[in-house]
Amino acid sequence: MIFRPLLGTFLGLVLALPANAVEVRVQPKAVLELFTSQGCVSCPPADALLAKLAQQPGVIALSYHVDYWDYIGWHDTFGAKANTTHQKNYAARWRSGRIYTPQMVVNGFKGVVGSRQREIDAAMAMTKLSLPVSLDTSNGMLTVDIEGQAGLGDSVVWLVTYVDRADVDIEKGENEGKRVTYTNVVTSRQAVGMWEPGAGAHLKLPLSEVITDKNNGAVIIVQEEENGLPGNILGAAAFQQ
Questions:
Q1: Cα four-point dihedral sign 196, 198, 199, 201
Q2: 206: cis peptide before it, omega within 30°?
Q3: Residue 113 and residue 120: Cα distance in Å, rounded?
Q4: What are the sequence ranges of the domains in the chain?
Q5: What span, in angstroms and rounded, lies between the C-alpha atoms of 53 and 208?
Q6: pLDDT tens digits, 147-156
């Protein structure tokens, strides 16, 4: 995998947090990735459910808008080819020949229909995030500290940015005439480093390049990779401004 630095300004490894930093350690129980589309008539119930689940303690909920429904009459205002590729990569890992919306992926472990809470709850009960991730946003920097943990494999550290809420009036397509509220809409996803079970990972990123006029929140996700495809999520932490 080739890593592209965050806006060309990846600052590399650091050995410790700044002395005046206030360390915040967050260990959520689940990362939920909803693949959705403004052009999908079945998606609004899943979008509403994601908003509900996002209120649960320990849940990081993200909305990935795909672009493959744009052809039916409405161009998704958040749709991105990169999101479609991310979903296809999950399908390839699970050796599935299809992708669909709404789909909820739980901790990178299992994908279920995004509007079926019982299936989502069952998937959350089957897996957990065992790797603590600490974030600090003092001194104009995002400092990420991820401890080592034996028994796990090398993993990718991802930075995912999002906007926490968006109300969209849909004028064409299957949802024509509806006003839909979207929660934690992903605006970018990029690799910023590697995590190793022996050494852990310690990263610093300019906060001004993480939080911009296009987003107001960010998530650090540590995710296994299997033959170039996304594996289980080991740990995550989120913050919002």
A1: positive
A2: no
A3: 8
A4: 6-240
A5: 29
A6: 999 988 899 9
